[in-house]
Design a protein that fits this description.
12 helices; transmembrane helix; about 25% strand; alpha+beta; 4-stranded mixed beta sheet; elongated; single chain; 3 domains
Protein backbone atom coordinates (compact mmCIF):
# COMPACT_ATOMS: atom_id res chain seq x y z
CA UNK A 1 0.00 0.00 0.00
CA UNK A 2 2.85 2.35 0.82
CA UNK A 3 4.57 1.79 -2.57
CA UNK A 4 1.30 2.66 -4.35
CA UNK A 5 0.99 5.95 -2.47
CA UNK A 6 4.53 6.86 -3.44
CA UNK A 7 3.84 6.13 -7.08
CA UNK A 8 0.71 8.31 -6.99
CA UNK A 9 2.61 11.21 -5.48
CA UNK A 10 5.34 10.93 -8.12
CA UNK A 11 2.67 10.92 -10.82
CA UNK A 12 1.03 14.04 -9.46
CA UNK A 13 4.35 15.86 -9.23
CA UNK A 14 5.15 14.96 -12.83
CA UNK A 15 1.74 16.26 -14.00
CA UNK A 16 2.17 19.54 -12.14
CA UNK A 17 5.64 19.96 -13.63
CA UNK A 18 4.27 19.54 -17.12
CA UNK A 19 1.50 22.20 -16.66
CA UNK A 20 1.96 25.33 -18.80
CA UNK A 21 3.04 28.59 -17.13
CA UNK A 22 0.18 31.14 -16.73
CA UNK A 23 1.01 34.75 -15.91
CA UNK A 24 -1.61 37.23 -14.58
CA UNK A 25 -0.54 40.68 -15.71
CA UNK A 26 -3.52 42.50 -14.09
CA UNK A 27 -2.67 45.07 -11.47
CA UNK A 28 -3.84 44.75 -7.87
CA UNK A 29 -6.12 47.76 -8.36
CA UNK A 30 -7.79 46.10 -11.36
CA UNK A 31 -8.39 42.89 -9.43
CA UNK A 32 -9.86 44.89 -6.48
CA UNK A 33 -12.27 46.82 -8.70
CA UNK A 34 -13.48 43.60 -10.41
CA UNK A 35 -14.15 41.93 -7.05
CA UNK A 36 -15.97 45.03 -5.78
CA UNK A 37 -18.15 45.15 -8.90
CA UNK A 38 -19.06 41.49 -8.51
CA UNK A 39 -20.04 42.08 -4.87
CA UNK A 40 -22.29 45.02 -5.75
CA UNK A 41 -24.02 43.05 -8.46
CA UNK A 42 -24.85 40.31 -5.97
CA UNK A 43 -26.42 42.89 -3.57
CA UNK A 44 -28.65 44.13 -6.39
CA UNK A 45 -30.10 40.76 -7.10
CA UNK A 46 -33.94 40.43 -6.77
CA UNK A 47 -33.59 37.95 -3.95
CA UNK A 48 -31.58 40.43 -1.90
CA UNK A 49 -34.33 43.05 -2.35
CA UNK A 50 -37.08 40.68 -1.32
CA UNK A 51 -35.12 39.64 1.77
CA UNK A 52 -35.28 43.30 2.92
CA UNK A 53 -38.89 44.01 1.91
CA UNK A 54 -40.52 40.89 3.35
CA UNK A 55 -40.16 41.78 7.09
CA UNK A 56 -41.26 45.41 6.43
CA UNK A 57 -44.36 44.30 4.56
CA UNK A 58 -45.19 41.78 7.28
CA UNK A 59 -45.03 44.47 9.97
CA UNK A 60 -47.33 46.81 8.02
CA UNK A 61 -49.91 44.08 7.49
CA UNK A 62 -49.84 43.22 11.21
CA UNK A 63 -50.44 46.85 12.24
CA UNK A 64 -53.35 47.19 9.79
CA UNK A 65 -54.99 44.04 11.13
CA UNK A 66 -54.71 45.32 14.73
CA UNK A 67 -56.28 48.70 13.84
CA UNK A 68 -59.16 47.04 11.98
CA UNK A 69 -59.81 44.73 14.92
CA UNK A 70 -59.94 47.65 17.40
CA UNK A 71 -62.34 49.64 15.23
CA UNK A 72 -64.65 46.65 14.85
CA UNK A 73 -64.67 46.03 18.60
CA UNK A 74 -65.67 49.68 19.42
CA UNK A 75 -67.61 51.06 16.46
CA UNK A 76 -69.34 53.84 18.42
CA UNK A 77 -66.49 55.21 20.51
CA UNK A 78 -65.09 57.38 17.70
CA UNK A 79 -68.53 58.83 16.94
CA UNK A 80 -69.05 59.72 20.59
CA UNK A 81 -65.65 61.39 20.82
CA UNK A 82 -66.34 63.45 17.72
CA UNK A 83 -69.74 64.55 18.99
CA UNK A 84 -68.24 65.61 22.30
CA UNK A 85 -65.52 67.58 20.56
CA UNK A 86 -68.06 69.41 18.42
CA UNK A 87 -70.52 70.15 21.21
CA UNK A 88 -68.15 71.23 23.98
CA UNK A 89 -67.14 74.86 24.14
CA UNK A 90 -63.47 75.30 23.28
CA UNK A 91 -63.06 77.78 26.11
CA UNK A 92 -64.36 75.24 28.62
CA UNK A 93 -61.94 72.57 27.42
CA UNK A 94 -59.04 75.00 27.52
CA UNK A 95 -60.04 75.98 31.05
CA UNK A 96 -59.97 72.37 32.19
CA UNK A 97 -56.60 71.72 30.60
CA UNK A 98 -55.19 74.84 32.13
CA UNK A 99 -56.52 73.92 35.56
CA UNK A 100 -54.96 70.48 35.26
CA UNK A 101 -51.60 72.10 34.49
CA UNK A 102 -51.86 74.04 37.75
CA UNK A 103 -52.62 77.63 36.89
CA UNK A 104 -52.69 78.69 40.56
CA UNK A 105 -51.41 82.22 40.77
CA UNK A 106 -52.10 82.58 44.48
CA UNK A 107 -50.57 79.37 45.74
CA UNK A 108 -47.70 81.11 47.53
CA UNK A 109 -50.01 83.28 49.62
CA UNK A 110 -50.76 82.57 53.25
CA UNK A 111 -54.45 83.13 52.59
CA UNK A 112 -56.01 82.00 49.34
CA UNK A 113 -59.50 82.71 48.08
CA UNK A 114 -59.25 79.95 45.49
CA UNK A 115 -60.14 76.27 45.73
CA UNK A 116 -57.26 75.66 43.32
CA UNK A 117 -54.92 75.83 46.30
CA UNK A 118 -57.28 74.36 48.90
CA UNK A 119 -57.86 71.07 47.11
CA UNK A 120 -54.34 69.78 47.64
CA UNK A 121 -54.34 70.12 51.41
CA UNK A 122 -56.56 69.44 54.38
CA UNK A 123 -59.26 72.05 54.86
CA UNK A 124 -58.46 74.07 57.96
CA UNK A 125 -60.77 76.32 59.95
CA UNK A 126 -59.81 79.94 59.48
CA UNK A 127 -60.21 82.79 61.93
CA UNK A 128 -63.29 84.78 60.91
CA UNK A 129 -61.48 88.03 61.70
CA UNK A 130 -59.06 87.38 58.83
CA UNK A 131 -61.80 86.99 56.21
CA UNK A 132 -61.66 89.34 53.25
CA UNK A 133 -65.09 90.36 51.91
CA UNK A 134 -65.68 91.13 48.26
CA UNK A 135 -69.29 92.26 48.73
CA UNK A 136 -71.09 94.77 50.92
CA UNK A 137 -74.68 95.72 51.67
CA UNK A 138 -75.91 99.29 51.61
CA UNK A 139 -77.13 99.12 55.21
CA UNK A 140 -73.67 98.02 56.39
CA UNK A 141 -72.24 101.39 55.38
CA UNK A 142 -75.34 103.55 55.26
CA UNK A 143 -73.29 106.68 56.00
CA UNK A 144 -70.88 106.08 53.13
CA UNK A 145 -71.26 107.54 49.66
CA UNK A 146 -70.49 104.99 46.91
CA UNK A 147 -68.25 105.95 44.00
CA UNK A 148 -68.15 103.35 41.26
CA UNK A 149 -64.92 102.74 39.39
CA UNK A 150 -63.45 100.01 37.21
CA UNK A 151 -60.05 98.58 36.46
CA UNK A 152 -58.81 95.80 34.18
CA UNK A 153 -56.33 92.96 34.28
CA UNK A 154 -53.01 93.81 32.66
CA UNK A 155 -53.74 91.67 29.60
CA UNK A 156 -56.77 93.88 28.97
CA UNK A 157 -59.17 90.95 28.91
CA UNK A 158 -61.22 91.25 32.12
CA UNK A 159 -62.84 94.28 33.77
CA UNK A 160 -63.01 94.45 37.56
CA UNK A 161 -65.66 96.75 39.10
CA UNK A 162 -64.68 98.52 42.32
CA UNK A 163 -66.84 100.45 44.80
CA UNK A 164 -65.22 103.24 46.80
CA UNK A 165 -67.08 103.96 50.05
CA UNK A 166 -66.48 107.51 51.25
CA UNK A 167 -67.45 108.09 54.90
CA UNK A 168 -66.32 111.71 55.03
CA UNK A 169 -67.93 112.93 51.80
CA UNK A 170 -65.32 115.66 51.57
CA UNK A 171 -65.01 115.30 47.80
CA UNK A 172 -67.50 115.32 44.97
CA UNK A 173 -67.97 112.33 42.69
CA UNK A 174 -66.14 114.09 39.86
CA UNK A 175 -63.14 114.86 42.07
CA UNK A 176 -62.69 111.15 42.71
CA UNK A 177 -62.68 110.45 38.98
CA UNK A 178 -60.16 113.22 38.38
CA UNK A 179 -57.83 111.41 40.83
CA UNK A 180 -58.58 107.99 39.37
CA UNK A 181 -55.03 106.68 39.67
CA UNK A 182 -54.88 107.43 43.41
CA UNK A 183 -57.50 104.84 44.32
CA UNK A 184 -56.46 101.87 42.18
CA UNK A 185 -53.01 100.39 42.61
CA UNK A 186 -51.66 99.36 39.21
CA UNK A 187 -48.76 97.58 40.91
CA UNK A 188 -51.09 94.71 41.79
CA UNK A 189 -51.37 93.45 38.24
CA UNK A 190 -54.15 95.87 37.29
CA UNK A 191 -54.45 98.72 34.81
CA UNK A 192 -56.83 101.68 34.72
CA UNK A 193 -56.49 101.96 30.92
CA UNK A 194 -55.57 105.68 31.21
CA UNK A 195 -58.94 106.55 32.70
CA UNK A 196 -57.08 109.21 34.69
CA UNK A 197 -56.57 111.08 31.38
CA UNK A 198 -60.31 111.48 30.86
CA UNK A 199 -62.45 114.29 32.28
CA UNK A 200 -65.64 113.08 34.01
CA UNK A 201 -68.72 115.20 34.54
CA UNK A 202 -71.27 113.09 36.41
CA UNK A 203 -74.61 114.21 37.83
CA UNK A 204 -75.82 111.33 39.99
CA UNK A 205 -79.19 112.90 40.79
CA UNK A 206 -79.98 113.65 37.14
CA UNK A 207 -78.46 110.33 36.01
CA UNK A 208 -76.33 111.96 33.32
CA UNK A 209 -72.64 111.67 32.48
CA UNK A 210 -70.18 113.24 30.06
CA UNK A 211 -66.66 111.94 29.42
CA UNK A 212 -64.14 114.10 27.56
CA UNK A 213 -60.89 112.91 25.98
CA UNK A 214 -57.75 114.92 26.71
CA UNK A 215 -54.56 115.17 24.67
CA UNK A 216 -52.84 112.93 27.24
CA UNK A 217 -55.14 110.00 26.52
CA UNK A 218 -53.00 107.76 24.28
CA UNK A 219 -54.88 104.44 24.22
CA UNK A 220 -54.92 102.99 20.71
CA UNK A 221 -58.44 102.16 19.44
CA UNK A 222 -57.69 98.48 18.89
CA UNK A 223 -60.55 96.01 18.99
CA UNK A 224 -59.63 94.76 22.47
CA UNK A 225 -59.16 98.30 23.85
CA UNK A 226 -62.53 99.39 22.47
CA UNK A 227 -64.26 96.41 24.13
CA UNK A 228 -62.56 97.07 27.47
CA UNK A 229 -63.36 100.80 27.27
CA UNK A 230 -67.07 100.09 26.79
CA UNK A 231 -67.12 97.53 29.61
CA UNK A 232 -65.37 99.91 32.00
CA UNK A 233 -67.88 102.67 31.28
CA UNK A 234 -70.69 100.17 31.88
CA UNK A 235 -69.20 99.20 35.25
CA UNK A 236 -68.73 102.84 36.26
CA UNK A 237 -72.06 104.38 35.27
CA UNK A 238 -74.75 101.70 35.30
CA UNK A 239 -74.80 101.40 39.14
CA UNK A 240 -75.86 105.07 39.21
CA UNK A 241 -78.78 104.27 36.93
CA UNK A 242 -77.17 106.12 34.01
CA UNK A 243 -78.18 104.65 30.65
CA UNK A 244 -76.28 106.87 28.22
CA UNK A 245 -72.89 108.63 28.24
CA UNK A 246 -71.91 111.63 26.12
CA UNK A 247 -68.36 111.38 24.72
CA UNK A 248 -66.52 114.55 23.76
CA UNK A 249 -63.10 115.38 22.34
CA UNK A 250 -61.08 114.65 19.24
CA UNK A 251 -59.95 111.06 19.63
CA UNK A 252 -60.30 108.00 17.43
CA UNK A 253 -61.53 105.95 20.41
CA UNK A 254 -64.69 108.06 20.48
CA UNK A 255 -65.26 107.40 16.79
CA UNK A 256 -64.82 103.66 17.28
CA UNK A 257 -67.19 103.49 20.25
CA UNK A 258 -70.01 105.63 18.85
CA UNK A 259 -71.01 107.39 15.64
CA UNK A 260 -72.80 110.38 17.12
CA UNK A 261 -70.93 110.92 20.38
CA UNK A 262 -73.58 109.14 22.44
CA UNK A 263 -72.84 105.76 23.99
CA UNK A 264 -75.82 103.71 25.14
CA UNK A 265 -74.81 101.45 28.00
CA UNK A 266 -75.87 97.82 27.99
CA UNK A 267 -76.29 95.42 30.87
CA UNK A 268 -74.55 92.09 30.59
CA UNK A 269 -77.08 89.51 31.68
CA UNK A 270 -76.14 85.87 32.24
CA UNK A 271 -72.94 86.89 33.99
CA UNK A 272 -71.07 84.65 36.41
CA UNK A 273 -68.26 85.53 38.77
CA UNK A 274 -64.76 84.24 39.32
CA UNK A 275 -61.95 85.99 41.13
CA UNK A 276 -58.64 87.71 40.65
CA UNK A 277 -56.04 87.43 43.39
CA UNK A 278 -52.76 89.29 43.64
CA UNK A 279 -50.89 88.78 46.92
CA UNK A 280 -53.50 89.27 49.68
CA UNK A 281 -55.95 91.27 47.55
CA UNK A 282 -59.03 89.56 46.12
CA UNK A 283 -61.50 90.86 43.56
CA UNK A 284 -64.64 89.31 42.13
CA UNK A 285 -64.58 89.41 38.34
CA UNK A 286 -67.72 89.30 36.14
CA UNK A 287 -67.44 87.02 33.12
CA UNK A 288 -69.95 86.98 30.30
CA UNK A 289 -70.39 84.15 27.81
CA UNK A 290 -73.40 83.92 25.56
CA UNK A 291 -73.69 80.14 25.89
CA UNK A 292 -74.13 80.35 29.68
CA UNK A 293 -77.89 80.79 29.87
CA UNK A 294 -78.78 79.56 33.38
CA UNK A 295 -77.38 79.36 36.91
CA UNK A 296 -76.66 75.64 36.66
CA UNK A 297 -74.35 76.14 33.68
CA UNK A 298 -72.81 79.20 35.34
CA UNK A 299 -71.89 77.26 38.50
CA UNK A 300 -70.32 74.58 36.32
CA UNK A 301 -68.16 77.22 34.59
CA UNK A 302 -67.15 78.62 37.98
CA UNK A 303 -65.32 75.37 38.80
CA UNK A 304 -62.47 76.19 36.44
CA UNK A 305 -59.74 78.81 36.20
CA UNK A 306 -59.79 81.02 33.13
CA UNK A 307 -57.06 79.94 30.68
CA UNK A 308 -53.85 81.95 30.38
CA UNK A 309 -54.83 84.46 33.04
CA UNK A 310 -54.89 85.09 36.79
CA UNK A 311 -58.67 84.58 36.99
CA UNK A 312 -59.37 81.71 39.38
CA UNK A 313 -62.30 79.39 40.05
CA UNK A 314 -64.81 80.14 42.79
CA UNK A 315 -66.47 76.71 43.09
CA UNK A 316 -64.51 73.54 43.99
CA UNK A 317 -63.96 71.20 41.06
CA UNK A 318 -65.36 68.21 42.98
CA UNK A 319 -68.60 70.02 43.86
CA UNK A 320 -71.86 68.10 43.49
CA UNK A 321 -74.53 70.77 42.89
CA UNK A 322 -78.33 70.67 43.05
CA UNK A 323 -80.54 73.66 42.29
CA UNK A 324 -84.20 74.35 43.03
CA UNK A 325 -85.93 77.56 41.95
CA UNK A 326 -88.88 79.23 43.62
CA UNK A 327 -89.81 82.59 42.15
CA UNK A 328 -87.12 85.16 42.99
CA UNK A 329 -85.48 82.72 45.41
CA UNK A 330 -83.09 79.94 44.46
CA UNK A 331 -81.98 77.02 46.64
CA UNK A 332 -78.43 75.82 46.02
CA UNK A 333 -77.08 72.63 47.60
CA UNK A 334 -73.35 71.95 47.27
CA UNK A 335 -71.40 68.96 48.54
CA UNK A 336 -67.61 69.07 48.45
CA UNK A 337 -64.77 67.87 50.66
CA UNK A 338 -63.16 71.32 50.26
CA UNK A 339 -65.91 73.37 51.93
CA UNK A 340 -65.25 74.69 55.41
CA UNK A 341 -64.66 77.80 57.49
CA UNK A 342 -62.08 79.29 55.13
CA UNK A 343 -61.62 82.17 52.70
CA UNK A 344 -62.25 80.00 49.65
CA UNK A 345 -65.70 78.96 50.90
CA UNK A 346 -66.57 82.56 51.79
CA UNK A 347 -65.51 83.70 48.32
CA UNK A 348 -67.63 80.94 46.79
CA UNK A 349 -70.72 82.13 48.68
CA UNK A 350 -70.15 85.71 47.54
CA UNK A 351 -69.48 84.71 43.93
CA UNK A 352 -72.70 82.68 43.90
CA UNK A 353 -74.64 85.62 45.36
CA UNK A 354 -73.47 87.94 42.58
CA UNK A 355 -74.01 85.28 39.91
CA UNK A 356 -77.58 84.51 40.95
CA UNK A 357 -78.25 88.24 41.20
CA UNK A 358 -77.10 88.66 37.59
CA UNK A 359 -79.66 86.02 36.57
CA UNK A 360 -82.46 87.97 38.26
CA UNK A 361 -82.77 86.29 41.67
CA UNK A 362 -83.09 88.29 44.88
CA UNK A 363 -82.38 85.64 47.55
CA UNK A 364 -80.27 82.49 47.85
CA UNK A 365 -80.83 79.60 50.26
CA UNK A 366 -77.50 77.83 50.81
CA UNK A 367 -77.17 74.20 51.83
CA UNK A 368 -73.41 73.62 52.01
CA UNK A 369 -73.08 71.90 55.38
CA UNK A 370 -72.40 75.15 57.27
CA UNK A 371 -74.75 77.31 59.30
CA UNK A 372 -72.53 80.38 59.16
CA UNK A 373 -69.62 81.57 57.04
CA UNK A 374 -68.23 84.93 58.04
CA UNK A 375 -71.01 87.50 58.25
CA UNK A 376 -73.45 85.35 56.29
CA UNK A 377 -76.13 83.43 58.23
CA UNK A 378 -76.79 80.41 56.04
CA UNK A 379 -79.75 79.22 58.09
CA UNK A 380 -81.79 82.00 56.46
CA UNK A 381 -82.22 83.14 52.85
CA UNK A 382 -79.34 85.48 51.95
CA UNK A 383 -80.12 88.74 50.15
CA UNK A 384 -78.10 89.71 47.08
CA UNK A 385 -75.58 92.46 48.02
CA UNK A 386 -75.41 95.59 45.88
CA UNK A 387 -71.79 96.71 46.28
CA UNK A 388 -68.98 94.70 44.74
CA UNK A 389 -65.28 94.83 45.64
CA UNK A 390 -65.73 97.57 48.26
CA UNK A 391 -62.83 99.80 49.25
CA UNK A 392 -63.37 101.84 52.39
CA UNK A 393 -62.12 105.42 52.43
CA UNK A 394 -61.78 106.74 55.97
Amino acid sequence: MRNRDIENNDSIEEMLTNLPNIDDHRSKEDVYQRLKYHEVQQDKSPWKKWKVLIPIASSMVTVMLIVIAILNMHPSSNDQSLDMALNESSSEETSRDHRADGNNKGQNNDQSASFSTEESKEVEKQDQASFHYQLAYEDEHSQAKPIYMATATTNGEYVIPITLLDFNETSTVNQYYHAYDRYIDEKRGLTIQQMDHLVFNVNVEAETATVSFTDDYKMEPTTSNVVIFRKMLNAIFMPYGIQQVILKGDHEMKDQVTDNGKLTLEAYDNTYFKQYQELSTFYLVPIYKSNVTNVERALKEMKYDEPLSSIQSTVPSDADIEIHESGQRINIEIQSKNLGHNQATLSMVEAILMTTGAFGYEQVVFDIGLEQIGKYDLTEPVEIPNRINPKLLQ
